Amino acid sequence: MPNLLQGKCALILGVANKWSLAYAIGEAFRREGASLVLTYQGERQRDAVETCAAELGASRLLACDVSKDHELEQLSEALKAAPGRLDAVVHSIAFANREELGNSFLETSRAGYLMAQEISAYSLVAVARAVAPLMGGGGSITTLTYIGSVRVIQNYNVMGVAKAALESAVRYLANDLGPRGIRVNAISAGPIKTASARAIKDFSSILDIVATRAPLRHNTEPGEVGDAALFLASDLGRGVTGNVLYVDSGFHIMGF
Question: What is the pLDDT of residues 88-119, one digit of tens each?
Fold first, then answer.
């Protein structure tokens, strides 16, 4: 079934470089005919994301810091001008201070906790509110999470708690936006060597464990996540909302 997203427009927030999951999702969307709009946060990121946008054949590159309401408003206005509508949105944004990931969760600072929640969880709510008016024909909003939301993963700490809030937000947004035909889901990807993952202490040991114990006996590949996001954004996923889809070689089903 080729061209699953032919004629559709997708907004992808969170492309950092060609190794990011958002980039892999962009590749899958583009392969299936979608027109892409990418965002970047601040001038420091612009050059890197601009290169990715060119590689993905994106039609537009727009600035957006999801922690600033006025930039979300500007994003919404820019999208209304062109392309005028959205069919799919990918939210691939998360952040926590490095020190909050290195210390024990007990030592999490108030400021660090609030920052992780604002960027990693609340931003989905803010983005959904900004883009929903552009999805008059319905569509799909997909975010990215991790098993650290429901299990203790050593050194994941405050990010695990933020991902738990993110997954809860998915369910509430799915309920609010369902009457408009907008579906909201999350993909819980297995550990992958991305720039953000490398901030987690002893991350390589997690990769070794998954490769040994996951039912499929291999670590998650970016393309697997891209194709799962493609399913959720396409008409094949038209009956799916409020879900967390695990793309982790089956690791989440394993006990000791």
Answer: 999 999 999 999 998 899 999 999 999 999 99
Active site residues: 146, 156
CA 244 to CA 91: how far, in whole Å? 14
Is 14 within a domain?
Answer: yes
Span 137-195, pLDDT tens digits: 999 999 999 999 999 998 999 999 999 999 999 999 999 999 999 999 999 999 997 76
Which pTM does this prediction carry?
0.95
Domain count of the fold of the chain: 1
Burial tier of 125 (Cβ tally within 10 Å: 0-12, 13-18, 19+): middle
Structural domain harbouring 93: 9-190+225-247
State how far the Cα of 84 lies from the Cα of 253, in Å rounded to an integer. 42
CA proximity to 23, closest of 196, 207, 159, 225: 225
196 falls within a domain: no
